[in-house]
């Protein structure tokens, strides 16, 4: 009965064994080596010749009205930088150089701070150009901040002067004690705000990041090796398949 079952089982002549795969691979190993080494060499060349790029960062601290409170909101400053001062500079640059600025400038506000970061990614050869652009934008921001500080100071000084006059007028009244106390308290609050005001501070201009941007050279070489390995195996078997098809067509 068992012999009959064995005879009835279908025989598959087209099955491929691991030995067949290994034989085919060894037969076409030159194709594998050629693809692997050419891809690896291309990856090494790209990693070596890839231009270095760094982040160049400028950092300013906005003018403070008092501790943790800023005369102008960071979001409003960034909107002005993105939609007014940077486009104005881009127009001037295009008119002078007949081309666009060869790098981008992005603006960030770290959460819960009054800091504005200007960041540009470029090669070291463009550092001076980045410094010039950042310095121009910082100058525009500085002028706007100085004007805002001056305006707020004048407003506070006028209010303090008005309160002082009001206090003098009320001092002659017998029943104005509560009003005088309220005026004194308000004047002290305004004076404290005036004394705690701080101008905008430039912390750094176009500082180069410590680490290079982009993938590491070792990672590029590793990926090239993996790509060459997979591509070499695939092309080795594809070459053998094409050879077998060609041989069968020539026989027929």
From TrEMBL:
InterPro entries: Bact_polysacc_biosynth/exp, LPS_length_determ_N. The keyword Membrane applies. It comes from Marinobacter metalliresistant. The chain crosses the membrane at residues 31-49, 219-239. This is Wzz/FepE/Etk N-terminal domain-containing protein. It is a multi-pass membrane protein. Residues 14-67 form the Polysaccharide chain length determinant N-terminal domain. It is found in: Cell membrane. Keywords: Cell membrane, Membrane, Transmembrane, Transmembrane helix. Pfam families: Wzz.
């Amino acid at each position: 009965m068992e012999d009959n079952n064995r005879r009835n089982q279908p025989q598959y002549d087209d099955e491929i064994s691991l030995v067949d795969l290994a034989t085919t691979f060894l037969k076409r190993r030159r194709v594998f080596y050629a693809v692997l080494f050419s891809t690896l060499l291309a990856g090494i060349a790209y990693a070596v010749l890839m231009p270095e790029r760094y982040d160049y960062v400028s950092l300013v601290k906005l003018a403070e009205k008092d501790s943790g409170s800023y005369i102008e909101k960071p979001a409003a400053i960034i909107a002005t930088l993105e939609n007014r001062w940077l486009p104005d500079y881009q127009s001037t640059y295009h008119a002078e150089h007949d081309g666009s600025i060869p790098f981008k400038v992005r603006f960030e506000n770290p959460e819960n701070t009054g800091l504005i970061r200007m960041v540009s990614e470029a090669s070291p050869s463009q550092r001076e150009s980045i410094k010039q652009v950042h310095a121009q934008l910082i100058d525009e921001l500085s002028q706007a901040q100085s004007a805002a500080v001056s305006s707020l100071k004048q407003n506070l000084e006028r209010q303090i002067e008005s309160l002082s006059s009001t206090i003098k007028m009320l001092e002659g009244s017998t029943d104005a004690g509560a009003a005088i106390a309220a005026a004194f308290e308000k004047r002290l609050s305004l004076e404290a705000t005036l004394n705690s005001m701080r101008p905008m501070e430039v912390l750094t201009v176009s500082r180069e990041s410590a680490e290079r941007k982009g993938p590491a050279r070792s990672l590029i070489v590793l990926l090239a090796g993996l790509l060459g390995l997979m591509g070499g195996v695939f092309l080795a078997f594809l070459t053998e398949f094409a050879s077998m098809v060609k041989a069968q067509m020539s026989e027929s």
